[in-house]
Amino acid sequence: MSVVQSIVLGIVQGLTEFLPISSSAHLRIVPAIFGWDDPGAQFTAIIQLGTMAAVVIYFWRDLLAVVTTWFRSLTRPALRGELHARMGWYLIIGTIPIAIFGFFFRDQIENGARSLYLMGTTLIVFGLVLGAADYLGSKKRPVTAVNRKDAIIMGLAQALALIPGVSRSGATITAGLIMGLDREAAARFSFLLSVPAIVLSGLFGLVKEVGSGSGNAGWGAIIVATIVSFVVGYGAIAFLLKWLARHTMYIFVVYRVALGLVILVLAGAGAIS
Predict the structure, then answer these.
(1) Average of pLDDT values for 227-233?
(2) Residue among 60, 62, 64, 66 nearest 84 (CA)
(3) Residue 111 confidence (pLDDT)
(4) What is the SS3 string spanning the chain?
């Protein structure tokens, strides 16, 4: 993989990890359009560590409060009712489904699930589901109202994102909207929930990449793409939170449906493979 390719893919990862349009699908689609080799699921998993770092730095105060309060609550029962202590449990509960399904279906994720036809279809279907959730959801509950039921539902939705084209942020935000969270609250909890999931995915991909030598992409390309994804991802978080404070999700719905249709047409015509 050339430096230019790694920079482009790093930008794609940073932009699409947090926007509800599926980073894994874009990291499969962009190389196909340019005629590049598929970088593979391991490459995708590793460079997600860059966007994970962006989340950690952007929300470092929230995460620090969650971690410290949660640990203190283990020995101090009086703290267990506080939001940050409860949030710690919610993040753990919400991560369990993707950890289980990701482990047991890892072979399908790395191979069969990377079909362009599947990605085009999931972009369209889950884009329409996102639009319906944004239209029908009450959007009255702030992030302080997140509870255990929300964590379970959004955790199960996050597991669906193991299928490229679904979008981790798209699935979790959709679930949050269905549960009545306002757009910003759904996005904020979605981003916090992404931290343990991305860490697990990235470390698993890193271990496999180390075991296979330099891998398909090469360590230089992986490092460059990871750094670029961090910088771009940080900007994408700030943009989306500000956007959702004043706008609907419909622009992302339209984009997903249009992109999905284009992919299906190009793949069907043999223009990309």
Answers:
(1) 95
(2) 66
(3) 62
(4) CCHHHHHHHHHHHHHHCCCCCCHHHHHHHHHHHHCCCCCHHHHHHHHHHHHHHHHHHHCHHHHHHHHHHHHHHCCCHHHCCCHHHHHHHHHHHHHHHHHHHHHHCHHHHHCHHHCHHHHHHHHHHHHHHHHHHHHHCCCCECHHHCCHHHHHHHHHHHHHCCCCCCCHHHHHHHHHHHCCECHHHHHHHHHHHHHHHHHHHHHHHHHHHHHCCCCCCCHHHHHHHHHHHHHHHHHHHHHHHHHHCCCCCHHHHHHHHHHHHHHHHHHHHCCCC
Residue 21 has pLDDT above 90, yes or no: yes
Q: Which two tokens stand for residue 209?
A: 């990449």
Gap between the Cα atoms of 127 and 106, Å rounded: 24
**Half-sphere exposure (CA, 13 Å, Cβ side) for 50?**
30
Distance CA 152, CA 39 (A): 32
Q: How confident is the model at residue 240 (pLDDT cuts 50, 70, 90)?
A: very high
Residue length, the chain? 273
- Write down the residue that tokens 């539902």 correspond to: 153
Q: Measured between alpha carbons, how far is 264 from 147 in angstroms, rounded to an integer? A: 39
State if pTM tops 0.85: yes
Plot region of 270 (φ>0 → left; ψ -120 to 50 → alpha; else → beta)? left
Token pair for 10:
């790093």
Closest CA to 169 of 184, 144, 142, 187: 187
